[in-house]
Amino acid sequence: METNLSCSTEGNNMAARGALVVLEGLDRSGKSSQCSRLVSYLEGQGLSAELWRFPDRTTDVGQMISAYLTNASQLDDHTIHLPFSANHIEWCKAPEIGLLAPDLVAYLDISPDKAAERGGYGDERYENLEFQKKVVEHYKVLHDASWKVVDAWQPIEDVEKQLQEIVLACVTECQKGKSLSSLWLT
């Protein structure tokens, strides 16, 4: 999810700008629900907010990915990597290295077993315990000190409140001119 405020520069000084906020988590951790609620909250605070989803299932490539994920088409697991990469490039218009880093990564933490108890679990190809346990391990590798972890097994309203506080603090910091950073330059 991206929160767009204003972005301008005067010479080499960073001025107020929007914030790029990313919500991550296992399937059925509440990312879609919380993103929608967060956009409504930010707009209610008088801030401009825009929601982006990945994969973007509205593009031709995204529809191919969606068909694969919902088991409507069969592809080799290695083959589907190419459409995911193409969709990511469509989404961000550039390769990942050197892209703007998110100002905030909020990780909605839930165990695969608890996620499996939520409605609709198993509707997509990778919504199974074995795969989601592997995803948890990969998130542990990616996780760094900058991530904010939210217990996604809490009531939805508690998760919402916690995200509102975290994101509003991030937006405020960006409005004050927080410097931009890039992904994976080393």
UniProtKB/TrEMBL annotation:
Ranges where the Thymidylate kinase-like domain occurs: 23-90
A Gene Ontology term for the protein's cellular component: cytosol
GO biological process, one term: dUDP biosynthetic process
Superkingdom as given in the UniProt entry: Eukaryota
GO molecular function, one term: dTMP kinase activity
Alphabetical list of Pfam families matching this protein: Thymidylate_kin
Family per similarity comment: Belongs to the thymidylate kinase family.
Protein name (record): Thymidylate kinase-like domain-containing protein
Record organism: Vicia faba
